[in-house]
Amino acid sequence: MSGRRVAGIGQLGARLALAFVAVALAAIAVNALLSAEILGGDFNRLVKEQERGLAGAAALASAAAYGKMGWKHADLDSVYALAGRADAGVRVWDGAGRIVGSSPNFTSLPTSHARTMPVIVRGAKVGQVTTRFDARAAGEMVQAFDARKWHSRLIAAGLAALIALVVSVAVALPITRPLERMLAAVRARGAGRRFIRIEKPRGVGVIRELLAAYNEMSHAVDERDRLQRNLVADVAHELRTPVAVLQASHEAMIDGVTESTPENLESLREEVLRLARMVDDLQCLASAESAALQLRLVPCDMSAIVSEAADNLRETFAVAGVRFEQRLTSTMVRCDAARMREMVTNLLTNALKFTPRGGRVLIESGPLDGTRVAKVRVSDTGVGIPADELPHVTERFFRGARSLEMADGSGIGLTIVDELVRAHSGELTIASQPGAGTQVTIALPEADSAESRRLPLLRLVTGHGS
After folding, report:
1. Any idea where the domains of the chain sit in the sequence?
2. Complete DSSP assignment for 222-270
3. pLDDT value of position 452
C-alpha cells in the first residue's frame, strides 16, 4: 500500500487533488476566454472612441484657428501639436476642398486609420479635417494590454492551482485514509486474517457508516461461520453415538459374540429410527432457516390452524395420561398455514414430553390484550426449565439435564419454532419455573398490520408471564 501512495495521500487522494486542480484551471481558462472576448471588444471600442474624440478635438481646434480671419490667416500649429501628442497627423481642407495645411507626419500614416470631421464656424461648414492615426501605436497598446492581461491570468492560474491543491489535500485526507484502512482490512481478511476489524471508524458521513457497516458485516460473517462449525460439530456428536452402537452391535453379531435375536434386532432398529428422526429434524431445521424465502403468507384464522393441530394430537395426550385443554378465539393473521401448524405441533409435542402422567397442557389462541397482536400460548405443568438453561433452549441440539431423563430427541425442536417465528416477523416468549411448568407464547401481527408491524425476534424470561 505504501508503495502506491502519492504525496502521502494515496492514489485516490492524488486523483482527487488533480481533479480539483483541473477544475480550477478549467475555470481560469473559461474565465480568460470570456474576458478576452469581452475586454477585447471593449478595448476596440475604447480605441475608436479615443480616435473619434481626437478627430473632433482637431476639428474644434481648426474652427478656432479659422476664427474671423478665415483660412488665409489661420494658425494651425495648435492643431498639429494636438495631433502630435497622440502620434497622429492632420490635414485641413477649406470649403472648396483645397488643402490649407498638413502636419509633417500626415502622409506617412496609413489611410486605413483615418477619420474626417467637418469644421463648423457659426453654424456653417467652412472646411474639414482629416486625422490619421498610427496603427502601430494602437497595436502596441493592444499588445501591452494583452501582455499584462495574460501575466495576471498566469498568476491567477498559479494561485488557483495552489489553493485547489491545498484544499484538495485537506478534503482528500478524510476520504482516502478511512477507505485505505478499509481496503487494508478487506485484503487482510481475504488473506485469512478474519479477526481484523477497523478500530474506531472515522470519516465523513457515509464513509464512517461504510466502515462501521464493514465491521458489522465481518462480525455477522464470523458469527455465521462459528454457527456452521458448531452445527457440524453438533451433528457429528449426535450421530456418533447411534452409529457407534450400530457398528458395535453388527460386529458383535458378525463375530458371533451376540445372536441375531428379535430383541437385538429391535434394539438396532430403534437406533436406526433415532438416526432417521435426527435426519428429519435437521431437514426441518434447514427448511425453517430458509423459510423466509419460501413462506406463502396469506390471511388465516389462527384458531382453525391450532384446532386442527390439536385434534391430531388429542389421542396421543389421552394415551400419555395428560389432560389436554383448548381455549381458542378466532383471530386473523398473515401466515403460512402449514408452517404455523408445524410450530403448534412442535410446541404441543414438546410440552407432552416434559409433562408427567396426570399433568395438564393448555393451548390458547386469540388476540393479545390491548394490542393488534395475535397469540398462541402453550402452558404445561411439567418439570419446568432451570433459569440457567432457559437462555439456551432455542440453541441447536441443546438438551437440558432433565430432558435426558424424560424424553428422547435431537434438541432442535424449539430451534425450528424460533426460526419459523422469525420468518413470520413474530415474537417467541418462553417463561418457566422448575417444578411448576413452562409457558411458551408465539405472538404474530394481526392480518391488517402484518406488513407494517415488526416485533422483537426473541425474548426469554423467568417466571410465568401474563
Report:
1. 1-196, 197-294, 295-462
2. HHHHHHHHHHHHHHHHHHHHHHHHHHHHHHHHHTTSS---HHHHHHHHH
3. 40
Length, in residues, of the chain: 466
Which amino acid appears at position 194 of this protein? R
Contact present, 80 and 129 (Cβ < 8 Å): no
Of 352, 353, 348, 355, nearest to 382 by C-alpha is 355
Average pLDDT score over residue span 295-303: 89
Question: What separation in angstroms does the CA of 289 have from each of 124, 275, 343, 456?
Answer: 111, 21, 13, 17
What's the Cα-to-Cα distance from 236 to each of 241, 395, 405, rounded to whole Å?
Answer: 9, 16, 22
State if pTM tops 0.85.
no
Alpha-carbon distance 31 to 25, whole Å?
10
Q: Could you tell me if 115 and 130 are in contact, meaning their C-beta atoms sit under 8 angstroms apart?
A: yes
Q: Residue 130 is placed in which grid cell? A: 482629416
Cα 213 off chain centre by? 10
Residue type, 329: T
Distance separating alpha carbons of residues 279 and 50, to the nearest angstrom: 104
Measuring CA to CA, which residue among 185, 59, 42 is closest to residue 126? 59
Number of other residues whose CB lies within 10 A of the CB of residue 464: 13
Superfamily of domain 295-462: Histidine kinase-like ATPase, C-terminal domain (3.30.565.10)
Task: Answer whether residue 1 shows pLDDT above 50.
Answer: no
Mean pLDDT of 93-100: 87
Contact 374, 366 (CB under 8 A): yes
Candidates 3.40.50.11540, 3.30.530.20, 3.30.110.30, 1.10.287.130; CATH matching 197-294: 1.10.287.130
CATH no., domain 1-196: 3.30.450.20
